[in-house]
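README, section 4: Worked example with a bound small molecule

Sections 1 through 3 covered apo chains. Here we extend the same pipeline to holo records, where the ligand is supplied as SMILES alongside the sequence. The molecule in this example is pyridoxal-5'-phosphate. Nothing else about the input changes; the structure line simply encodes the ligand pose together with the chain.
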Amino acid sequence: MSGFFSGKLAALDPYVPGEQPRDMQYVKLNTNESPFPPAPAVLQAVAEEAGKLNLYCDPECTRLRAAAAALYGLAPENILPVNGSDEALYFAFTAFCDSTRPMAFADITYGFYPVFAAMTGTPAHIVPLREDFTLDPADYCGLHENIVLANPNAPTGLALAPADIESILRSNPDNVVIVDEAYVDFGGESCVPLIGKYENLLVVQTFSKSRSLAGARLGFALGSPALIAGLNTVKFSTNPYNVNRMTQAAGVAAIASQDYTLENCRRIVENRTYTAKALEAMGFRVLPSKANFLFAAHPAAEGQALYSSLKKRGVLVRWFDKPRIRDWLRITVGSREQMDALLAALKTILHDERGV
Ligand SMILES: *Cc1c(COP(=O)(O)O)cnc(C)c1O
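The generated complex, written as structure tokens:
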């Protein structure tokens, strides 16, 4: 890196998003997007709002916050809409952490947490998951550090009960516990009902996965009015118009399309059960997922080799070149057709190439 840049930037190892390939049409199961289009009401709302793009959007996101308040059973003061939940996480690291206030998180979890730590000069306290990838809440009790947990976790799909998270909240009263609920709509239990009870709880949700809005960039930080006010200070010190006009309108319409969302989540959960069973029948070990993806490993095939063979056959999944999980694949649960294409490709690969 050239000498123009700060030492912090030179040392930064940025997050690597899943591929968004343009070379050919893939069965795309690598970034946990929804296979379903946005709700019809969303398309209409965005089209109407586009005519007003000459005007700045509402920096307070008034309509969207009111709609989200009704959805989550909270007050507008509990809610900060953000440009994708990644932005909420970045705001939180900026607001709560520094060189003397570390952030604790698991060794196997969302890959953005260590990047935000590095970016904000925050020491990362890495807490290993158990051998079977479950998280021991006792590891976080009485830690007296800021904590971020993905629940359900990524890329494992394993979920904690809110009672376990409560024990972490109660024993760290002077620190913030961030619960990243990107996948909660696929069968996990939300900590949002605990917000009135714990001032140190920040829940982060996204409309990227269950609400088919990954490309619109919309997420929410949910917490006590004091925490949300602090995050607003970060927002209004960087980008007051962080959620654009069309995305605010899309969010309101997506919230009004709750039946559509619930039906899509139901279909994903159904396809998840179907795919997990089929993978197990092929000899895969599959973790019990509460998310819109499966984490699976085959005893007779290396993760990277499977990933490459699938890609050659036009099926894209996620493989992480990381200790402990090199032989695992994270596979987004898509439509039934996509799942059948994945299973057919895996059968060919395991049978023809490996004789399993
Ligand atoms: C996808 C994901 C996010 C980011 O979602 P955006 O709202 O699209 O920024 C955050 N946390 C986890 C664990 C995720 O998997």
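What to look for in the output: Residues 32, 84-86, 110, 150, 154, 180, 182, 206, 208, 214, 219 surround pyridoxal-5'-phosphate (CB under 6 Å). The radius of gyration is 21 Å.

Section 5 describes how to batch many such records.
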